[in-house]
Amino acid sequence: MTTIVDSNLPVARPSWDHSRLESRIVHLGCGAFHRAHQALYTHHLLESTDSDWGICEVNLMPGNDRVLIENLKKQQLLYTVAEKGAESTELKIIGSMKEALHPEIDGCEGILNAMARPQTAIVSLTVTEKGYCADAASGQLDLITR
């Protein structure tokens, strides 16, 4: 299988030395929303400054969450975003990830250690509509933990 790293696609690639990044952000929930927003914004910051802020991605659920982490590692933590405008679509290879962790691979202790490192400045998470439960009868947000 050809990976992003091995390809000769005419796509913008990160211009900085990835090895200088530090995992200053630990993000729980490496879903599509996060990759297309927070990780993309961090990528833009890295393009325009000499920042060393990288992201340690953490997925916690089994199944597809683990597969995503494994696939990101095969791609050296690079992935592609399509930015669609009125006139064109621009593809970019995003390089803001420094690490990708999953408890079945790295253990819960590995994830906790990443959060506790001195260079970690932010622990963030994304909660999209799938993370909220609505009471079927009232349609209101169900705030009771089950």
TrEMBL record:
Instruction: Look up the EC number in the record and give it.
Output: 1.1.1.57, 1.1.1.67
Superkingdom classification of source? Bacteria
Among Pfam families, the record links this protein to: Mannitol_dh (PF01232)
What SUPFAM superfamilies does the record tag this protein with?
NAD(P)-binding Rossmann-fold domains
Q: Which Gene3D superfamilies match?
A: NAD(P)-binding Rossmann-like Domain
| UniProt keyword Oxidoreductase present | yes
User: Biological process (GO) annotations?
Assistant: D-glucuronate catabolic process
| UniProt-listed PANTHER family | D-MANNONATE OXIDOREDUCTASE, MANNITOL DEHYDROGENASE DSF1-RELATED
* Record's protein name: D-mannonate oxidoreductase, NAD-binding
Gene (name only): uxuB_2
